[in-house]
Amino acid sequence: MVQLTTVLCKAYHGGHLTICLALSGCTNRPFYHIMAAHKCPRDGRFVEQLGSYDPMPNSHGEKLVALNLDRIQHWIGCGAHITKPVEELLGLSGFFPLHPIVITNAERLRWKQAQEVLLAAQKTDTEATETKEN
Amino acid sequence: MLRALRTLGARPLDRPPAHFLLLARGRKTRHDPPAKSKIGRVATPPAVDPAEFFVLTERYRQYRQTVRALRYEFVTEVRRKAHEARAGVLAERKALQDAAEHRELMAWNQAENQRLHELRMARLRQEAREQERRQAEEAAREAREAEAWAQLKEREVLQLQEDAKNFITRENLEARVEEALDSPKSYNWAITREGLVVKPQHKGS
Q1: For chain A, how far is it from start to end, CA to CA, in angstroms?
Q2: What number is the ipTM of this complex?
Q3: Any chain A CB within 8 A of the CB of B188?
Q4: Is pTM, for the whole model, over 0.80?
Q5: CB of A64 closer than 8 Å to CB of A89
Q6: pLDDT by position in tens, chain B (length 205)
Q7: Which of the residues A1, A96, A98, A99 would you substitute to probe the B interface, choosing the one with the greatest number of B C-beta atoms within 10 Å?
Q8: Å from A99 to nearest chain B CA?
Q9: Alpha helix (H) ranges present in chain A?
């Protein structure tokens, strides 16, 4: 798997405005705000807050994401760039098409789980044949 | 760092387990020299699966195409909104309404100014009349006072003329002295502090 991010991300962050995640919260408890900001520090000056993302699942096992789609559309119309995590969130929400990396990671996970199931099945088959021989 | 942590679950099985790397992560800064055990180490990137690579590039191409189209749509939407806000039908109607409202307000202001002007003129006329009345009264009062003063002075002059007839002059000095000496009136009395008159009763002079 070639690292494509460095090649592809050169085209990002060339414009004036970026829609990115700003980290807040405390130790062992991250919380992200989805911001429209210029080239400022991660938690510094921003133009507008467009939503939030809570990476820790809540009591129902959900990770909550809030997106102000109207304003996001406006800022993209004004020429804002979007970072990869925000693109992935927008893809999962349905506003954008699903990101290729999300699909690829899901495929790899499924392949790995299938391999594990296959290995477990093979191991039980070998154990069954060994007991039969004995 | 969290982005790298997310991709840990997707790494292939031949890489070392994740928790060993987690324990060592962040121990060295960028200025620390690499360890002696890493002298001949050549970092080899993970192997590329050609089929997956082809599928991934194809997916990226389609994704970028779709995102470009969406971005173009959003840009045209924003420009259309800006144009409509500047020179659209609603903006023109609003401009006309604003002009009409402005004219109405100016007319109302004019009417108010006229009304207040009328009131002010009436008040000024009333004040002028009051002033004239007060001045007339003042004049009348002063005239009366002057007349009273003149009459008083006239009376005093007449009184003095009357009294002057009884004055003692050089001509009737002798006659008056004789008359005073001959009169029975006696000035030989005293008065106490309480106001009692004390007359001599044939005791001394």
Answers
A1: 45
A2: 0.81
A3: no
A4: no
A5: no
A6: 555 555 544 555 455 444 444 455 678 888 999 899 999 999 999 999 999 999 999 999 999 999 999 999 999 999 999 999 888 899 999 999 999 999 999 999 999 999 999 999 999 999 999 999 999 999 999 999 999 999 999 999 999 999 999 899 999 999 999 999 999 888 889 999 999 999 888 755 4
A7: A1
A8: 7
A9: 5-8, 69-77, 84-93, 100-133
